[in-house]
Design a protein that fits this description.
The protein is elongated, with a radius of gyration of 32 Å. The longest helix is centred in the last third of the chain and has 35 residues. The strands form five sheets. Strands 14-26-25-24-15-22-23 form a seven-stranded mixed β-sheet, with helices on both faces. It has a six-stranded antiparallel β-sheet with strand order 6-5-7-13-8-11, with no helix packed on it. The protein is built from 27 helices and 26 strands. The relative contact order is 0.10. The protein is an alpha+beta fold. The two termini are 36 Å apart.
């Protein structure tokens, strides 16, 4: 099933990349130190405040800033603006972020974070564990001095990053999650330290231990660090999509220059060079075949399961895999103009786009933190004016900060996320980060790729039809299969494997061919038991004057059903035809039916021919078909569907699906597909079972609902508790208990999610 593989014109490329008419230069920077949505906004505002900057877009997941310039501006100026906002920035060189040094630094940072988390957990467990003593009737507790020694490294070593990241927000007069954690844990730690130092001889006593709040500050820091670690691991994997795409391009190429064939680095290729593509090699650049014939595997780029025949005048794409023929290709596109580079750019653009919903905590933190600090200050001043001792006024102010400590806020997302993703993992669904959960809420349509997603992506022999007539009396179906399989013995071609598997399944004994000649782009010629056989296309049959009339109507019907037809002849006599198709995956029908019952619309998006696509859609009950769509156009099709107002989920498995997966509101990848598809998607299905798609949507929505419920309860505690603390109704002890209760309620609510059965909600 050959498809046009033309390159986009420059204006098409600009539209595909989302380029506007104004900006003349695009710069990219990797940003360090960002932790939440407010950080993103601060970096964007810092960049957009510079003259000559048309717009700036910062992506938290990829830590990438893209700046559109309308006039020349030095990288140093942009970096200075970012540094003034409190963040680090390094320019992206030639659009490729992933270097060996960056990978090494990333691995070191991950090991360091894991060490910090392990130490924090180890030191926090005794502080939290002592809370169970009263429940067991044990009237002891850790001595205040020991609690202080355990909590101090957690607060100022493990929690140092919170202070570092909170300081720029504080200087800018805004708030973020780090500032909430730093203020809340510092308040709890500071109050506990004051109480511990005031305990005198009880500092070393296990009896009558005063109520302290070290476990609260330590637990918040540890759990937030755990959530950050999980989130950072998910962020790191997003960059691998680009790396997997770039890995398709070979490092060297054979070039014929003035009759001398030499191997040169791909970076040294020039337009007009004559590439020599040997069998089994990857094509180094986009171009046109000027000599030779071969079958080229473009599956990693197009998702097509069958190799595409190439001959004089055919377009080939860099990154595709040459078959068994020798090709000479004239180079016509290099660098950013190549198809592979444009796919990489589309993935980058989609990943850099803004999610439709911002994190709730990041939206309210800028208001919440200054408000709490102001209330604490007013509380202190008010009680001092009322004439109470300074120490008591401080206690009341600290109580406000303790009750407002963002324990529940810090736990709301990570606990629900961990429970939800754990439930999903047990069902064979991997959810990378919370942004996927937000997108799932608004999903109204699920778009499926065809080959390898709804179908198995493996051609099989579906039809075998001997030619009618008296020219071959007694010629049976098994004999046709035996000759065809014998002629292809030992071949690795996908269609040959399908024939050999069919013959083996029926127990047919084969005869090795006496001779074999591959005819690239047409088929093969072989001698079996002295019989001169031809297997291949209608073109090959025409070259040998083989009449196809007896089976032409049959062939047209098979092709209309999306089948690939191969003809078999002996000399000039037609023996029959073989037809190949791709089977629908088990569970595909049930998945489509489940989605419909959930009120979701379904669509099919594929590069395959329309007849094959419509046949699969009809078989599965899919109403909308978008067929013969080129890889770089898939993201545009998704954007068009999103423009209708409904959230769009995309399910795919190939490299060609990567831009669409990244562009969709929710990208879902089949794990059996390419690494690029898996890394570009927000959700990965561990089992290649389409029935997991509706379950993924259900789990995502349920988990997001839990997060929102948790945040609601967290804010309710603060809304009710802060005024009570300010008026002195609550003591620090009660404030600490309320804070702990808020955390327990959040965790308990999250744990309820583990009892949910997503399979029942799909109403199978």
């Amino acid at each position: 099933m050959d498809m046009p593989f033309d390159t986009l014109p420059p204006e098409g490329r600009a539209a595909a990349a989302g380029a506007g008419a104004g900006p003349t230069d695009i710069r990219e920077f990797t940003i360090s130190g960002m932790t939440c949505g407010s950080c993103v906004g601060r970096v964007e505002r810092a960049l957009e405040g510079l003259p000559g900057v048309a717009s700036a877009s910062v992506n938290l997941a990829t830590a990438l800033a893209r700046v559109n310039l309308t006039q020349p501006l030095a990288d140093a100026d942009l970096q200075s603006a970012i540094a003034a906002a409190g963040y680090g920035a390094e320019p992206v060189i030639s659009g490729e972020r992933e270097t060996s040094q960056a990978d090494h630094d990333q691995a070191r940072a991950e090991k360091r974070d894991l060490l910090v988390l392990a130490v924090a957990v180890t030191l926090t467990l005794p502080l939290v564990g002592q809370m169970a003593f009263p429940l067991l009737g044990i009237n002891v507790g850790l001595p205040p001095l020991l609690q202080l020694l355990l909590a101090t490294p957690i607060q100022f070593w493990a929690g140092a990053a919170f202070y570092r990241h909170a300081w720029p927000a504080l200087k800018a007069g805004t708030g973020n999650m780090d500032l909430l954690v730093a203020l809340g844990t510092s308040a709890a730690y500071g109050l506990s330290t004051v109480l511990a130092l005031s305990s005198g001889s009880a500092m070393l006593s296990w009896q009558d231990v005063p109520h302290l709040y070290f476990e609260a500050s330590a637990a918040v820091i540890t759990l937030v660090l755990l959530g950050r670690f999980i989130e950072e691991r998910a962020k790191q994997r997003t960059s691998q999509a680009i790396r997997a795409l770039l890995a398709l391009r070979p490092e060297t190429a054979w070039v014929d220059r003035c009759g001398k064939i030499e191997s040169i680095p791909v970076d040294q290729l020039e337009l007009g060079d004559l590439l020599v593509i040997k069998p089994g090699e990857r094509i180094a650049a986009d171009g046109t075949v000027v000599k030779g014939e071969s079958a080229v595997d473009e599956s990693l780029l197009t998702g097509e399961s069958l190799p595409v025949d190439k001959s004089l005048g055919s377009k080939v794409t860099g990154g595709s895999l040459n078959g068994n023929g020798l090709l000479r290709v004239k180079v016509e596109a290099l660098g950013e103009d190549s198809r592979l580079s444009r796919i990489v750019a589309l993935v980058r653009d989609a990943q850099a786009s803004k999610p439709p919903v911002q994190k709730l905590v990041d939206r309210v933190s800028a208001v919440f933190v200054p408000l709490v600090v102001a209330v604490a200050g007013v509380t202190l001043a008010g009680w001092l004016l009322a004439g109470i001792p300074v120490s008591e006024a401080i206690i009341h102010a600290v109580t406000v900060l303790v009750i407002a400590c963002p324990c529940a806020l810090g736990l709301a997302t990570p606990t629900a996320l961990m429970v939800g993703t754990g439930l999903a993992a047990r069902r064979g669904i991997l959810i990378k980060d919370a942004s996927a959960l937000e997108q799932a809420r608004e999903i109204g349509m699920v778009v499926f790729d065809k080959t390898g997603t709804l179908t198995l992506g493996q051609p099989e022999l579906t039809d075998l039809e001997p030619a009618p007539g008296t020219e071959n009396p007694g010629f049976e179906r098994n004999e046709l299969l035996r000759l065809a399989a014998s002629a292809q013995s030992g071949s690795e071609h996908p269609l040959a494997r399908a024939v050999l598997e069919s013959a083996a399944a029926q127990g047919i004994a084969l005869t090795p061919p006496e001779s074999f000649e591959g005819l690239p782009g047409r088929g093969l010629r072989a001698a079996v038991e002295g019989r001169a056989l031809l297997l291949g296309s209608a073109r090959l049959m025409a070259e040998h004057a083989v009449g196809l009339t007896p089976l032409e109507a049959k062939a047209r019907g098979l092709e209309a059903a999306g089948r690939t037809v191969t003809w078999v002849a002996e000399g000039g006599t037609l023996l029959g035809l073989l037809a190949f198709g791709d089977r629908v995956r088990p569970g595909a029908r049930e998945a489509i039916a489940d989605l419909k019952r959930m009120g979701l619309e379904t669509a099919l998006l594929t590069g395959d021919n329309r007849r094959a696509a419509e046949q699969v859609a009809s078989e599965l009950g899919i109403g909308r078909v978008l067929a013969e769509v080129l890889p770089e156009d898939k993201a545009a099709e998704i954007e068009g569907l999103r423009a209708t107002g409904a959230g769009v989920a995309m399910v795919g498995d190939g490299v060609n699906d990567a831009p669409a997966l990244a562009s969709a509101d929710l990208g879902i990848a089949m794990a059996g597909g390419s690494d690029v598809a898996v890394e570009s998607a927000m959700v990965t299905l561990v089992r290649d079972d389409p029935r997991l798609v509706p379950e993924a949507v259900v789990i995502s929505r349920r988990t997001l609902a839990k997060i929102r419920q948790n945040l609601f309860w967290a804010f309710i505690y603060n809304t009710l508790g802060i005024p009570m603390a300010a008026f002195g109704v609550l003591s620090p002890v009660f404030a600490g208990a309320a804070m702990a209760l808020s955390s327990i309620s959040v965790v308990g609510n999250s744990l309820l999610l583990s009892r949910h059965d997503p399979g029942k909600e799909t109403v199978r």
